[in-house]
Amino acid sequence: MTAVLATVGALISYQSGSAQNEAMFLKNQSILKQAEASDQWAFYQARSVKSHVDDATAALSSDPTVKAHFLAEKTKEDAGKAEVQMEAQKLQAESRKLGEESEAKLRPHERLALALTFVQIAIALAAITVLTRRKWLLWASVASAAGGIGIAVSAFALH
After folding, report:
1. Half-sphere exposure of residue 92, counting CA atoms within 13 Å on the CB side?
2. What mean pLDDT is predicted for residues 97-119?
3. Domain ranges of the chain
4. Which helix (H) or strand (E) holds 46?
5. 149 touches 8 (CB < 8 A)
6. pLDDT surpassing 60 at residue 159
7. pLDDT tens per residue across span 35-87
8. Which of 79, 78, 80, 96 lies closest to 37, judged by CA?
9. CA distances from 37 to 23, 33, 44, 75, 79 (A)
10. Concatenated DSSP letters for 85-136?
């Protein structure tokens, strides 16, 4: 019984670690996308400042060719600014989605860790049963193992 429970425990531990690793990978991807979005927002701000400078320069200029040049530059910056804003919003949405996926992957981990605890208790009780030959310890071991396996199955069902 202890060998079977140890095998079940190893499987639960593997699944728990796998869920945790996937969640960490997705969280790292989310952080990377958020950093890229922050870069895009900084670029957006830079283009916005340049647009305002072009606008102010055009307003202060008395030469019509200089004024036309800076107004054209302002229009170009405003168009580019809109593209940068769309990209930043897209990256933020991707980051949010990856963060949610990470949290979803991590949810089973907590249940699997609890399940593994019950299986480990069952293994300990089974070993003590062999030493003491007390039947009630065997039933406690079976109950703990059943609880652990039940919790593990529910974690997979939620996954």
Report:
1. 11
2. 90
3. 2-158
4. helix 2-60
5. yes
6. no
7. 999 999 999 999 999 999 998 999 888 899 999 999 999 999 989 999 999 99
8. 96
9. 21, 6, 10, 23, 18
10. HHHHHHHHHHHHHHHHHHHHHHHHHHHHHHHHHHHHHHHHHHHHHHHH--HH
